[in-house]
Amino acid sequence: MKLDVIKLDGKKAGSVDLDEALFGLEPRADILHRVVRWQRNNAQAGTHKVKTRSETSYSTKKIYRQKGTGGARHGSRNAPIFRKGGIYKGPTPRSHGHELTKKFRKLGLRHALSAKMKAGEIVILDEAASEGKTAALAKQVANLGWKRALVIDGASVNEDFAQAARNIDGLDILPTMGANVYDILKRDTLVITKAGVEALEARLK
Q1: What are phi and psi of 152, to 5 degrees?
Q2: Based on C-alpha coordinates, what's the Rg of the chain?
Q3: Secondary structure letter of residue 178 according to DSSP
Q4: How far is CA 155 from CA 29, 46, 197, in A?
Q5: I need a labelling partner for 115 at 20 to 30 A (CA). Which of 36, 87, 121, 168 fits?
Q6: What is the CATH number of domain 2-45+97-204?
Q7: What are the residue ranges in the chain where pLDDT is below 70?
Q8: What ranges in 29-126 are assigned the alpha helix state H?
Q9: What are the residues facing 193 on neighbouring strands?
Q10: Where are the domains positioned within the chain?
Q11: pLDDT of residue 187
């Protein structure tokens, strides 16, 4: 499939052929859901922690005599039944991540690209190059109508462009190896440079 290539000033710079195997699939929500869930679970810190009855700081002395009080038989203020006592079966530090095969992760990325193509939210950019001035780039982005955009460049990102884009709200830039399903789907516009298209095709074939 052919798509027009534009420059940052909005002028056309030819066209590019996109691989049907990457951009022409029928997007499947179940595949995208599984990959996004894998990503978000791996990103979760899992540092939540509560104190058990062996970690709370009360005296171990028996709180009152065993018999004759008319109340229940208790031996420790650290018991979970008491206020400020230990927590029973509470959360402990652990990893929330789970495995997902490399083949399936690649498939998820192809479906994410296809979903953006089907929605008409892909823009092919000639090159992500800038003078390093935020104001100039912000004006170009506003003229192009990009509000929440992700720019995917080639193997590396142009330093001047990255510096100019750093302080623009709603504009993010990643190298090809950083392209992922979650970041692609949560942006309104996916901008891929010509170098990025070539690198993506090489990565996902």
Answers
A1: -110, 115
A2: 27
A3: G
A4: 29, 32, 11
A5: 168
A6: 3.40.1370.10
A7: none
A8: 29-43, 102-118
A9: 125
A10: 2-45+97-204, 50-90
A11: 94
Bridge-based pairing of strands 2-6 and 12-17 is: antiparallel
Which of 40, 50, 38, 57 is closest to 93 using CA atoms? 50
Q: How far apart are CA 44 and CA 94, in angstroms?
A: 10
Question: What pLDDT was estimated at residue 58?
Answer: 87
Structure token digits, residue 70: 């008319």
Q: What is the pLDDT of residues 93-114, one digit of tens each?
A: 999 999 999 999 999 999 999 9
DSSP 134: H
Phi/psi of residue 53, each to 5°? -65, -20
Instruction: In whole angstroms, give the CA distance from residue 108 to residue 106.
Output: 5
In the numeric block, the tokens 């979970």 are attached to 80
126, 11 contact by CB (below 8 A) = no
* Coil vs helix vs strand at 55: coil
Tokens of 116: 């953006």
Query: Tokens for 142?
Result: 């506003």
pTM: predicted TM-score of the whole model, two decimal places: 0.83
